[in-house]
Amino acid sequence: MKPVIVVNYKAYYPQSFGENAVRIARDATRVYSELKGEVELVLAPPYTEIRRIVEEVRGTGVKVFAQHADPVEPGAVTGFIPLEGLVDAGVKGVILNHSEHRLKLADLNMLIKKAGKLGLETLVCADEPETGASAAVLNPTYVAVEPPELIGTGISVSKAKPEVIVRSVELIRRVNDKVVILTGAGITDGLDVYAAIKYGTSGVLVASAIVKARDPYSVIKDMAVNALKATRGQ
Amino acid sequence: MKPVIVVNYKAYYPQSFGENAVRIARDATRVYSELKGEVELVLAPPYTEIRRIVEEVRGTGVKVFAQHADPVEPGAVTGFIPLEGLVDAGVKGVILNHSEHRLKLADLNMLIKKAGKLGLETLVCADEPETGASAAVLNPTYVAVEPPELIGTGISVSKAKPEVIVRSVELIRRVNDKVVILTGAGITDGLDVYAAIKYGTSGVLVASAIVKARDPYSVIKDMAVNALKATRGQ
Amino acid sequence: MKPVIVVNYKAYYPQSFGENAVRIARDATRVYSELKGEVELVLAPPYTEIRRIVEEVRGTGVKVFAQHADPVEPGAVTGFIPLEGLVDAGVKGVILNHSEHRLKLADLNMLIKKAGKLGLETLVCADEPETGASAAVLNPTYVAVEPPELIGTGISVSKAKPEVIVRSVELIRRVNDKVVILTGAGITDGLDVYAAIKYGTSGVLVASAIVKARDPYSVIKDMAVNALKATRGQ
Amino acid sequence: MKPVIVVNYKAYYPQSFGENAVRIARDATRVYSELKGEVELVLAPPYTEIRRIVEEVRGTGVKVFAQHADPVEPGAVTGFIPLEGLVDAGVKGVILNHSEHRLKLADLNMLIKKAGKLGLETLVCADEPETGASAAVLNPTYVAVEPPELIGTGISVSKAKPEVIVRSVELIRRVNDKVVILTGAGITDGLDVYAAIKYGTSGVLVASAIVKARDPYSVIKDMAVNALKATRGQ
Questions:
Q1: Strand runs (DSSP E) across B21-120, as ranges?
Q2: Nearest to D78 among C8, C72, C74 (CB)
């Protein structure tokens, strides 16, 4: 299968908004096109930027996800994020249970099921191999295992804790042979992506290394090229 | 002072999104212009629609608020709503502590203070006159008292519980002589708005009566005209 | 293995406290002794009653669990329930993720691991077969599947939704062959317990049928006798 | 009025439980009796220790409070702390909104009202003078202002930020002339208590300085004697 790079814009970096948000999307579509769509690229901007980014990537193959959804039914839920509203805004999927926005187990299950019915993909984050396997039982599209203590450090899990990746793959595959497994936390460059794939996952969840980059294009390109190399066994 | 009508689009009615969301904004700007800006109109769309609505009302005098903000600092807060992100999206203010999205007292204080520094107005909802007065001590721009049992019923507080409005004004004015006081819950038509102002508040917080209306223009116009009449003592 | 009956006193029925709380414990120890300990009996009283009940059942074989624990570390956590405090109060285990007190997936994992280190058993509740299997991956001692819509109804899951029990056993056993599986929600009498075991689980989680009974002894005895019959294949 | 010293045992220090918990209560009753009840002493142990401590202080004049209550109605609320259960366990009051266990404004109001109906006193914590005044509008028995950054530091608010105490008294008295005002955070010895009263409050909320003390009696005595001196203007 194709390697995957998911870019979490986070809820607020100055670079997550406005022109810079669009620029990252433009850079992603350029890389996607240069690599002939052989690396899956997913962008997760803040809610207020979703429509712009959806517009920017329309027709390119690059996907837009929301960063979160709340376990609510449509209606009187002022200021919450129902899945139905995200569909309306044009996303293809949603990140759930990010380490900065954990969900209750029952709510996670409810959201994964409902997202499926609404035609949305789901990317569930987990802090450990065990919770990754636990989440995998609920049949999301992706599971990303991210040791929270490495998030935002610039020290990648592939360097600092490769055993976490190996064990995640092992535990998750015991209970689910289809879910796409990603690596997250501290992913900084192409080498981290290369290692994440070599250790058995299908790609990465990355944030500041791309969003805060002076030249997001180069970082995305470097990561995507390495993802492709690793996947092809080079 | 000018009477105020705040339209809460809620997080999800089918009408809260897309073309209909823009239509309500267009109707509001039409009424605003017809009444020469003598009634303050505030629109609170879902997060994903904020930029469109801000664009739509630009230069008209109609204001856009967010429905909520989370008590977080910018940075690693995936899927949350920091005030800084709302500023970037162009809102003029934010609803806080809506009955469907209550906040902790300490967080409410933190958000009101920070919003002030960022140049945003704050509209704090409260369920009872007592909590309205408690919130008023924190110096938000507006306080709206909304008995939760009437929200969404179509039975307005001005008809069912006028004593709640009277008592709200009394308790709030004891502790704050500047905050703008609004009435909410079950507001359906111009008569409800008229009564809300006659009982001593400056306007209303309204949702489904406008958002789900076949002809939002007529409802907004009816409410705004009555608000003006009541304010002028007619 | 031995059949199991877990009695959730809930956080507040008038009968959950004081002399009646002790009476239920005395009735449970009487049944336990009459059945020569061949049915496992677990009591989960409110926090304030734990020490009394622990005292009452000391030396009898009946176990005391807490109804919940908070995912906190010891120290400055005023008004929360750390596992360490429960150990000090003398419990043998803890219910986690009850339908009335759901936990985040990551916290559930943290609590199960820490409880294990502290020598406490864990009973994790789940609302559906899928979440039951998801929880089972985390290796608690027990998993109880309780459809929330039946809790407190007096309509037992064994009568209304036997397929939920069957599917729970099937999904949970795919991922964990050791965890003890319980049935909950609406359990009213011995027949419900009999059915719960016949459908493949090891016992029940029950609340009002025992706690609010005029004669708790008779209900516990009826349930325990039926549990034993079902387990012995009679 | 009498000066007040409230001892928060916190949810878990090793000293908060068992024999040591009882010893602190015994020390408090000794001081209370030596000072002929002229200093109000309140003990807030963990939930599991409440009954023991209530038993220990029975008939002495020393009061027992719970550390928190949850905004729930009696019934199906497994693992929560309803006010009704606390009444049953024998407390005279409850701490609400501690900095480590914040409550929503609407819930705080609901709990203060219900506690009043149940005959319980309420002690509401606040992080700043503004939130202290906001809480005071809801008419609790006590308000304690505790800057969270000083809690547990051993640096008392009376030394590090006396202006917080002065401003708290000023803002709170503007909206409520009856509520008893306390000072909290970092209170270490009698001098801190003396200063807290000299700056205009009626006493202190204290935790580790007493609970972790080798000789709790001496610390309580020192604080109580200084409280009395300050109140008598010595």
A1: 40-44, 63-66, 93-96
A2: C8
